[in-house]
Amino acid sequence: MRPVSKDHGEICYPFIYEQSPVCDFEIAADELCSRIGLVLTMDLDDLTRHILNRVQPNVYHLNGSVRGKMAIEESQLQELYRDYNTLRDKLDGGFKGFVLPGGHPIAAELHLCRTQAKKIVRALVAVEHSGKKSPAPILFRYANLLANVMYALASYTNHIHAVQETEFVSRSY
């Protein structure tokens, strides 16, 4: 027996007690969608706002595409590629190494979106390894590219606000 009741609004999510990693994937996607919503409340340039307004609903489509009907299509993946290439062009290819997350406050939030997108990729891997579901390859492609777009958006934000990014050089690799 569950310690909560659907009748009294005590359950926050119908699959919350599920043993499957699908639940964790969906919650990770929900968190990214919420983080993007937070960024959309900020004073954004037109390009960033345009990209995030298109991407945010796709994160929820990604969310439902494992348990439910496939809702990410090749056209959305190609649109995200165009966004990524547009950002890279504006950054003259982008930073060639890795930077410490931060800079402008919007860039810092976008770096949090980037790490959350990586968690979505890992959650998809966990779903696949569980053997119960086999997420479509396009979901992995979209989620990985989404993390890269968030990185590019963070760099672009620092660029347009003339904030110098700090290169990170690992002593481990």
**Element order, helices and strands?**
HHHEHHE
Overall 3D form: globular
- Tell me how many strands there are: 2
Which structural class should the secondary elements be placed in?
mainly alpha
What spatial order of strands do you see in the largest sheet? 1-2
Indicate the radius of gyration in whole angstroms: 18 Å
Arithmetic mean pLDDT: 92
Describe, in plain words, how this protein is organized in 3D.
The chain has helices spanning 21-39, 46-67, 74-90, 105-130, 137-160, and strands at 98-99, 167-168. The protein is mostly helical. A two-stranded antiparallel sheet has the order 1-2. The longest helix has 26 residues, at 105-130. The radius of gyration is 18 Å and the shape is globular. The N and C termini lie far apart (49 Å).
SSE blueprint and pairings:
Blueprint: H1 21-39, H2 46-67, H3 74-90, E1 98-99, H4 105-130, H5 137-160, E2 167-168
Antiparallel strand pairs: 1-2
Helix pairs in contact: 1-2, 1-4, 2-5, 3-5, 4-5
Short note summarizing the structure:
The chain contains five helices and two strands. The protein has 173 residues and is mostly helical. Strands 1-2 form a two-stranded antiparallel sheet.
Which features does this protein show?
173 residues; mainly alpha; 5 helices; 2 strands; globular
